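Q: Got a minute? One more chain.
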Amino acid sequence: LRVATETHHKLRLTYLDAQQRPSLRTVHPLGCFFWGQVWTLAAWCETREAFRSFRVDRIQHVELLDER
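A: Always. Here it is, folded:
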């Protein structure tokens, strides 16, 4: 996650929501932040066309894309 943030590469995530439902997201990572109990990834989500926070512990798979 840090490498993608520093190099401005997009990521493809398999992410579980609070109900454990998986979704595939392509995101532009902005940074990782610790909020008391959990780490989160702040990113622009192409799927939702909005800024989103993704709990790192719910990310099932990460793929670093060539796209920037």
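A: The radius of gyration is 11 Å.
Q: Perfect, thanks.
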